[in-house]
Specification:
It is a single chain. Helices cover about 35% and strands about 15% of the residues. The protein is α/β, with parallel strands linked by helices. It has a 7-stranded mixed beta sheet. The protein is globular.
Length: about 650
């Protein structure tokens, strides 16, 4: 935390922090079942029998698509593989998803559309060796601190960094230049950068002509976005846009990094395509030091998707709709896989409301507090015929369940693997025994499968991994022995005797058309302003994000003290604090078109007038997601957490 961060919000608010204690969650150590509306302790056999019977009733009465699986981005690859297999084989549906939907599903969709693969194209080492780092919509210093250590090494090695973000964040303070754009104007800014590159004669025309398609349509789409027009819409000075365009286009190597500031919008996939277009225009992809890097926030959100815990892909990111691919999995699993894409998390919640999805198996997720417009989500979950939650804490979602199954903590109480943002698969080793009656996730899933007619036996996580390796060419070469020997391997790794380059899509630079393969298409996209419109009643734009000291909805991090933690605040610019006559530490009401919460004020000079900031880390004290809007990306299903219209009201004096 910088001196500026430490001084922000000074006033009586810091003193009252000592009295504001976040809720601490007790570890689940035994199964629970609901009886007469109350959760009570139960034995494992009773809990598993009830869980399985509820799933069977729902599917027997309403068909397999009445079931949905919420899988866990914090658990191992092996658990996610078995969870999606349970969904497809035991329950007979493709309705499986994870919190990838809440954050980086648009990155996967955008990267897949451009390159045929949903992973980031570069390694972390390349950030240290690049010449320019464009950090777009990412406060990586707080939200991705491990990755940011590589960024700092890159800066130390001479790389320039540009930060594009509505807030002057702690990350932006390390940048050569900060471009503070208006929330929801990423596409106009990207288009203006692209237009300037084209008009300045800086496009990599040889790469564009050889390796891409759709350039003419893209050039026509960006043509109206002159520097002057973009300045008017984005709020970024024209000369700053020009500087960024020239710096990115002329750099020998450049890394374009983004995170939730790009993906948590109603047009998120279009945002991602707009950034990828810049990499195609300049040839900053497919070679060492140049690439596109979406920063994944949870330890295995990349791996969850890679393992097939998504509704449209089988493990190894293989096409569910391709008959030969399905046939391979059907032969291995001795089943028939539905030849249609399942429901993602957003669509599953809609289906619950319609009454077509009746039972949910939720492993390690907390949608009651993580989803936008959370009161609506809670009402939906409460209407289910059957909800089973498998977790390490009694979360707010677990409190709604019919059956609660206590699981092991994936990062220290089980064996397996996890995959990070750079596609690196690494071993996870059991260090301690789970407390009480808590059990390994995979063992629980297999016990449920047995009660539903599928007798699965795995001697351990390595046996699960080897089954996955046999089905996924990208993972075939990653034996546990090699993962340990090499301290992790990036996919793709199709061979057991070699390791591929750390970057993807080098084929695009091949001169031979056959070796070059499919051209990477430009994605012409149009600007679409935030759905939640600012007006006289709701004049302030609230955006959301993370802080360094806390994690997601706080279930895991709230139990540990931190000298940085200060609870939830509404962060306002000095101008807005003066406008509303509020001081640091003063409680105010924050209202949107969906709900209202009360929180103290924090004054942040890094915010511009008209922009406010909150997090989702303390929902038991201040439930920020009562304010956010459910407007979602039609391609990826991710909600617009980053652009809520709010107002601030002083509390009435008693």
């Amino acid at each position: 935390m910088t001196d500026t961060d430490m001084n922000r919000g000074r006033g009586r608010g810091r003193d009252r922090d000592r009295d504001r204690k976040p809720k601490q969650y007790a570890r689940l150590t035994h199964p629970l079942v609901r009886e007469n509306g109350v959760l009570r302790r139960a034995g494992w056999d009773e809990a598993l029998d009830r869980a399985a019977a509820g799933f069977a009733r729902a599917t027997e009465a309403h068909g397999p698509d009445a079931f949905g699986m919420f899988s866990c981005a914090r658990s191992t690859n092996e658990m996610n593989y078995v969870a999606q297999k349970f969904t497809r084989v035991v329950m007979g549906t493709n309705n499986v998803d994870s919190c990838n939907r809440t954050c980086h599903a648009p990155s996967v969709a955008g990267l897949s559309a451009a390159f045929g693969s949903g992973g980031g194209t570069s390694s972390y080492q390349e950030v240290e060796d690049t010449d320019l780092i464009m950090m777009w919509g990412s406060n990586a210093r707080f939200a991705h601190p491990i990755f940011f250590q590589h960024v700092l090494k890159g800066i130390h090695n001479g790389a320039r960094m540009y930060a594009v973000d509505p807030r002057r964040t702690s990350t932006a303070e390390w940048a050569d230049r900060w471009l503070g754009l208006n929330v929801g104007t990423d596409i106009p800014l990207a288009h203006a950068v692209g237009r300037e590159i084209i008009h300045a004669g800086l496009a990599n025309t040889a790469f564009v002509e050889r390796a891409t398609s759709g350039y003419a349509e893209y050039a026509a789409e960006v043509e109206p976005w002159t520097l002057a027009v973009a300045e008017q819409v984005t709020g970024v000075p024209a000369e700053a846009i020009r500087e960024l365009a020239h710096a990115y286009a002329t750099a020998e190597r450049a890394q374009l990094c983004w995170t939730l500031g790009i993906t948590e919008h109603h047009n998120a996939t279009d945002n991602v395509r707009a950034l990828i277009n810049l990499s195609l225009l300049t040839g900053h992809v497919g070679r060492y030091g140049s690439g596109c890097q979406p920063l994944r926030g949870q330890n295995n959100v990349q791996g969850g998707g890679d393992m097939g815990a998504i509704p449209d892909k089988l493990p190894g990111f293989q096409d569910l709709l391709e008959p030969r691919t399905r046939a391979k999995f059907e032969a291995s699993w001795n089943t028939v896989i539905q030849p249609r894409i399942g429901l993602n998390l957003t669509k599953m919640l809609d289906a619950i409301e319609r009454g077509t999805l009746r039972a949910v198996y939720c492993i390690g997720e907390n949608p009651a507090q993580s989803e936008a417009d959370c009161e609506h989500t809670i009402a939906r979950l409460g209407s289910l015929d059957h909800l089973v939650v498998q977790d390490i804490f009694l979360t707010k979602t677990a409190e709604l369940a019919d059956v609660v199954l206590p699981a092991s903590a994936a990062w220290c109480e089980t064996d397996g693997t996890a995959t990070n943002s750079e596609r690196r698969v690494q071993r996870v080793r059991k260090a301690v025994t789970a407390p009480g009656e808590a059990r390994d996730d995979i063992a629980i899933i297999c016990d449920l499968a047995a009660r539903l007619g599928h007798d699965w036996k795995y001697a351990g996580s390595e046996e699960v991994w080897n089954e996955l390796r046999a089905l996924s060419p990208d993972h075939f070469g990653m034996t546990y022995e090699r993962l340990e020997e090499l301290q992790g391997i990036q996919w793709p790794c199709p061979s057991e005797d070699r390791v591929e380059p750390p970057f993807l899509h080098g084929r695009l630079w091949e001169k031979d058309p056959e070796r070059r393969g499919r051209a990477a298409p430009f994605g012409p996209v149009k600007h679409s302003p935030p759905v939640d419109v600012l007006d006289e009643l709701y004049p302030i734009r609230m955006t959301t994000g993370r802080r360094l000291d806390s994690y997601n909805t706080g279930v895991q991090s709230s139990g540990f003290a931190s000298p940085l933690r200060r609870g939830e605040y509404i962060e306002l610019s000095p101008e807005d604090a003066a406008r509303y006559g509020v001081t640091a530490g003063e409680d105010v009401t924050i209202s949107s078109r969906r709900g209202a919460v009360t929180a103290p004020v924090w004054i942040d000079p890094g915010l511009r007038a008209g922009l406010a900031f909150m997090t989702m880390h303390f929902p038991d004290e201040v439930d920020t997601n009562q304010l956010t809007i459910e407007a979602t990306c039609p391609i990826a299903g991710t909600a617009e957490y980053k652009a809520t219209a709010i107002r601030i009201d002083k509390l009435a004096v008693a």
